[in-house]
Design a protein that fits this description.
Layout (H helix, E strand, L loop, with lengths): L1 H29 L3 H7 L3 H34 L5 H13 L2 H12 L6 H6 L8 H25 L3 H9 L4 H29 L3 H6 L10 H8 L4 H28 L6 E3 L5 E3 L1
Antiparallel strand pairs: 1-2
Helix pairs in contact: 2-12, 3-7, 3-9, 3-11, 4-7, 5-7, 7-9, 8-9, 9-12, 11-12
Length: about 280
């Protein structure tokens, strides 16, 4: 009897948890007809937010890829004084409240910030521009990529890199022809997670870049701005982000399933190794 009650409670708890996660997603699409939601996508607020979101997110991910990859490889392949501190600094933006991150960016790069006067002397103004959106997205999203990339580089077989060097390959050639392909699955997973986080960024962006339509207003900011004025447009933009997230996760899982690991395991979404 006790086993049966435990099994019922176990299943009921699982159903409640899954329903709690699913119902808000379903409600976004159930509130209005699909046709009406699609019509809202032609709203200038929606189209402007889409352009700003795509532009700033793509540029931010390119910056993360360009600077985050060598940083991750350095942290994965070298142990040096302050290594643990460097890892902590990488992870810190993950636990910072987004509004605090935005205030920090403003205090660093604002008109009266730590570096603001120097930037203004060079003719560079960052706050409340699309560049500010890009920097805010890069700041909050980069730890997801860098942390995943560190795990991906650490999981590569060092003997293969050593063999490449023994055969006369330069460090750069070894990195691009051996290490990078081995870590590719983890890097793609990190970039996907980083991209998803950047698209949904809100707090740091509104503090550092504001919410100016067609200038700095991303999807997340437009959802907040239109909430009390045009709830249907808010639902439409929310639906777009939900579909984007579903497609991204589905594609990522499929890609990682196909990705061959050099070991007997396969790379998981968060850089761990699962037995095959």
């Amino acid at each position: 009897m006790r086993r049966r009650l435990f099994a019922v409670a176990y299943v009921a708890a699982a159903v409640v948890a899954l329903a709690f996660l699913l119902i808000p997603i379903v409600a976004i699409f159930a509130h209005s007809s699909p046709r009406h939601l699609v019509e809202q996508l032609s709203n200038p607020v929606v189209t402007d937010a889409a352009k700003v979101t795509i532009k700033t997110s793509v540029v931010a991910q390119l910056l993360i890829l360009l600077f985050g990859t060598p940083a991750a490889f350095l942290l994965a392949s070298r142990r040096f004084p302050g290594h643990s501190l460097a890892i902590t600094l990488v992870e810190l933006p993950l636990v910072l409240p987004p509004a605090v991150a935005g205030i920090g960016l403003l205090a660093a790069f604002g008109h009266f910030g730590l570096l603001g006067s120097s930037l203004e002397w060079l003719g560079i103004t960052l706050p409340f521009t699309q560049t500010a959106v890009t920097l805010a997205v890069a700041y909050v999203a980069s730890p997801l990529y860098i942390r995943q990339a560190i795990a991906a580089f650490e999981s590569t077989d060092p003997n293969l890199a050593a063999a490449s060097r023994t055969l006369g390959a330069s460090p750069a050639r070894t990195f691009f022809r051996v290490i990078l392909p081995l870590a590719r699955g983890g890097l793609i997973a990190g970039l996907a997670l980083s991209f998803a986080r950047g698209v949904g960024e809100f707090g740091a962006t509104i503090m550092f870049a504001g919410s100016l339509q067609a200038v700095t207003q991303t999807f997340s900011l437009a959802i907040y701005a239109e909430f009390s004025r045009n709830f249907d447009a808010t639902l439409a933009m929310s639906g777009v982000l939900v579909l984007f997230s579903i497609v991204l996760l589905a594609g990522l899982h499929i890609g990682l399933t196909w990705q061959r690991s050099s070991s007997t395991g396969s790379t998981s979404l968060f850089g761990l190794t699962t037995s095959s």
